[in-house]
């Protein structure tokens, strides 16, 4: 009796399936919709949006300041003069306009 063994086909199939699933899940963990690369992109976008929000908040604060300075309760004559010059194109009689 020669002891010829059958090839371990079941073990080979199990190893191939295991390696395939491991590769798939590793790929999904790195490049999937919720993977590491997507998380890095989201963090960069969040930083960009936070910077944009800071800029918009600064602009809103500036506009609130200008609005307050032109309100009935507090009138800034210099700002009113500047707005009249910008909007209406007015100048004083003792000024020279250089273009």
**Basic shape:** rod-shaped
Radius of gyration: 36 Å
The total count of helices amounts to 3
Structural class: mainly alpha
Instruction: List unreliable stretches of 5+ residues.
Output: none
Helical fraction equals: 55-70%
User: Biggest β-sheet: count, sense, barrel?
Assistant: none
Number of domains: 1
Q: Tally of extended strands? A: 0
Order of helices and strands: HHH
**What is the CA-CA span between the terminal residues?**
110 Å
How much strand content do the residues show? under 5%
Mean pLDDT: 87
Describe the structure.
It comes from Alloyangia pacifica. This protein is mainly alpha-helical and 99 residues long. It has one domain. 70% of the residues lie in helices and 0% in strands. The chain has three helices and no strands. The protein is rod-shaped.
Name some characteristics of this structure.
rod-shaped, mainly alpha, 70% helix, 99 residues, 3 helices, single chain
Please write out the topology:
Elements: H1 9-31, H2 36-69, H3 77-88
């Amino acid at each position: 009796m020669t002891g010829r063994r059958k090839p371990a086909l079941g073990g080979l199939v199990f190893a191939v399936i295991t390696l395939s699933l491991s590769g798939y899940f590793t790929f999904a963990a790195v490049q999937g919709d919720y993977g590491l690369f997507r998380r890095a992109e989201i963090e960069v976008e969040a930083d960009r949006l936070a910077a944009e929000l800071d800029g918009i908040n600064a602009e809103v604060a500036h506009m609130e300041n200008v609005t307050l300075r032109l309100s009935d309760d507090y009138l800034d004559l210099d700002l009113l003069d500047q707005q009249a010059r910008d909007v209406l194109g007015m100048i004083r009689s003792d000024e020279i306009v250089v273009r």
